[in-house]
Amino acid sequence: MKKLFPIQHVMGYLFSLILSVVALSVILWDMSVALGLTILLICAAVQMSVQLFMFMHIGENKSKTALYTNLGYALLVGLITIFGTLFTMIWGYQIK
Amino acid sequence: MKLDNTLPMEYRSEENSNRILGFWLFLGAEIVLFSTLFAVYLTLWTRTGSGPDAKEIFEIGPVLIETFLLLTSSFTCGLAVHSMRLGLKKPSMVFFGITLLLGLGFLGVEIMEFVTYVNEGATLQTSAFLSSLFVLLGTHGLHVLMGLLWGGGLMLQIRREGYTLETSNKSFIFSLYWHFLDVVWIFIFSFVYLKGLM
C-alpha cells in the first residue's frame, strides 16, 4: 500500500491544498489589491511548478531542454498577449 | 524497433518519446489559447452593463469544491502513472477511475453553477463580463469533458490490452493533459474567482 503513495506525490498534493488555502486568504482578510494580487500570483506560480515538476515529471524527459524552451516560449507569448492587451485596452488610457 | 529498457515504458521507443514531446508542444499552444481568453476576460470583467457584477454572482462554496475535486483528481492521476510504472495494472486502473469520477464531479458542480447564473439572469448575452466569463470557463469545462471521454476510452483499452508500449504511452500523455487542466483551473480560481471576490 505504501508504495502506491510515494511521498513526493503526497507532499505535492498537500502543498497544493495549502497553497489554495493561502490564496483564499485574499478574500478572507481586508488587504490592498496590490498585496492580494501578489499573493495570488506567487501561489499560482508555485502551484504550477508543483504540477510541472512533481506530477508531470518535466525534468526526467531526455529532451527536457526542448520542453523548457517550448514552455518558456508559450508562457512568454501568453504573458505578452495578456499584458499587451491590458496595456492597450485598460492601462494605456490612464497614462496622461 | 530500438528499445531503451532503462527508461519507463512510456518513453521506451523513439516513437513514444516523440509522441510525448509532441504533446508538450501541443500544451504550449494550449497555454497561448487560454492566455488569449484570460486577456479578454481581464479586459472586460468590469464591463457589466446592466447585468450583475462578479461580486454579485460568484459564490466561493462551489468554487472551493471544484478546486478540491480537481486538485485531488490531479493527485490520483499522478498516482495512476506511478503505479503504472511499477507495473501494477489494477491499482493504476483504480486511480484512473477515481480521477475520472472526480473530474465528473467537477463538471457536475460547474454545470450547476452555470445553471444558477442563468437562473439569476446572468447569461452569455447579458454583458461583456458574462460573455468572457462563460467563454473562459466553458473552454476549460469542455477540455475536462474531452478528458473524461478520452480517459474513459483509454481505460477500456488498458483493460483489454494491459499496459503495453502503446497504452502506457497514451496513459502518460493523458496524465500530462489532466495535470495541465488542473494548472489552468488554478489560474481561473485565482484570477477569476478570488480576484473577482476581493
TrEMBL record, chain A:
GO cellular component: plasma membrane
GO molecular function: oxidoreductase activity, acting on diphenols and related substances as donors, oxygen as acceptor
Location in the cell: Cell membrane
EC class: oxidoreductase
The enzyme's E.C. designation: 1.10.3.-
Gene Ontology terms: biological process: ATP synthesis coupled electron transport
Positions of transmembrane segments: 12-29, 35-59, 71-93
InterPro entries tied to this protein: Cyt_c_oxidase_su4_prok, QoxD
Keywords: Cell membrane, Membrane, Oxidoreductase, Transmembrane, Transmembrane helix
Catalytic activity annotation: 2 a quinol + O2 = 2 a quinone + 2 H2O
UniProt membrane topology term: Multi-pass membrane protein
Pfam families from the UniProt entry: COX4_pro (PF03626)
The family this protein is said to belong to: Belongs to the cytochrome c oxidase bacterial subunit 4 family.
Function comment: Catalyzes quinol oxidation with the concomitant reduction of oxygen to water.
Stated name of the protein: Quinol oxidase subunit 4
Organism: Paenibacillus anaericanus
Protein encoded by which gene: qoxD
UniProtKB/TrEMBL annotation, chain B:
Gene3D superfamilies: Cytochrome c oxidase, subunit III, four-helix bundle
Top EC class for this record: oxidoreductase
Main subcellular location: membrane
Domain Heme-copper oxidase subunit III family profile: 1-197
Topology versus the membrane: Multi-pass membrane protein
Pfam families for the chain: COX3 (PF00510)
GO cellular component, one term: plasma membrane
Transmembrane portions of the chain: 21-43, 63-81, 93-117, 129-151, 172-194
Gene Ontology terms for molecular function: cytochrome-c oxidase activity; oxidoreductase activity
Catalysed reaction equations from the record: 2 a quinol + O2 = 2 a quinone + 2 H2O
Keywords of the record: Cell membrane, Membrane, Oxidoreductase, Transmembrane, Transmembrane helix
Top-level division of the source organism's lineage: Bacteria
Family label: Belongs to the cytochrome c oxidase subunit 3 family.
Role according to the record: Catalyzes quinol oxidation with the concomitant reduction of oxygen to water.
Protein name: Quinol oxidase subunit 3
